[in-house]
From TrEMBL:
Organism: Nocardia tengchongensis
Gene3D superfamilies: Zn peptidases (3.40.630.10)
PANTHER family: ACETYLORNITHINE DEACETYLASE
Protein name (database record): M20/M25/M40 family metallo-hydrolase
A family per Pfam: Peptidase_M20
Classification via SUPFAM superfamilies: Zn-dependent exopeptidases (SSF53187)
Organism classification: Bacteria, Bacillati, Actinomycetota, Actinomycetes, Mycobacteriales
Length: 180
């Protein structure tokens, strides 16, 4: 079945202001490498609020990331979206207001938006739009919000190992990343 939505219908699924609020919420949580857990919990809460399956994955003791799945929970997902939660350090002269997103015309500024919180917001927005559309997916959409991009992708390899009981069924044996 082919589904076609007009631009106006897409805008109704996720208004621009709501997407900007999602991005601003991500920016408000500092997530330097090794300290991604608070942001992972925020992402999990956001996914669950929109009725999208989500769970925390332990990367290391006390360090977590989020994995979500939309659509059927069995079988090989049709698509995997992966984005990292860790951000570049703010630096010695950083001020708390860098964690407050600021809009200037059609631009949004804030810590981590350039790498990669805007991409994470886009992933969340896309998943929310699919969920709200009511489209029944034949195969799952897998979402990975990972830790440790600045450490060689340590977070991306963790879910591939399938070692997290709540989501083990989401990762068929043939899904593996090339870095693992």
């Amino acid at each position: 079945m082919r589904v076609s939505l007009s631009p106006a219908e897409l805008d109704q699924l996720l208004p621009e202001d709501e997407l900007l609020d999602i991005a601003a919420g991500l920016t408000a949580i500092a997530s330097p490498t090794g300290h991604e857990t608070a942001l992972a919990r925020h992402v999990r809460k956001l996914l669950r609020a929109h009725k999208i399956g989500a769970a925390l994955h332990r990367v290391q003791p006390g360090r977590y990331q989020t994995v979500g799945r939309l659509g059927p929970t069995g079988g090989t997902p049709a698509l995997l979206l992966n984005g990292h939660l860790d951000m570049d350090p703010l630096g010695r002269d950083a001020t708390p207001d860098q964690l407050i997103a600021a809009r200037d015309g059609d631009r949004l500024y804030g810590a981590g938006l350039h790498n990669m919180k805007s991409g994470v917001a886009a992933m969340l927005g896309a998943a929310i739009m699919v969920q709200r559309s009511g489209i029944r997916l034949r195969r799952g959409l897998l979402l990975e919000f990972v830790a440790g991009e600045l450490q060689g992708g340590v977070g991306t390899c963790t879910p591939c190992a399938g070692d997290c009981a709540p989501t083990r069924r989401w990762y068929p044996n043939r899904i593996r990343c090339g870095a693992c």
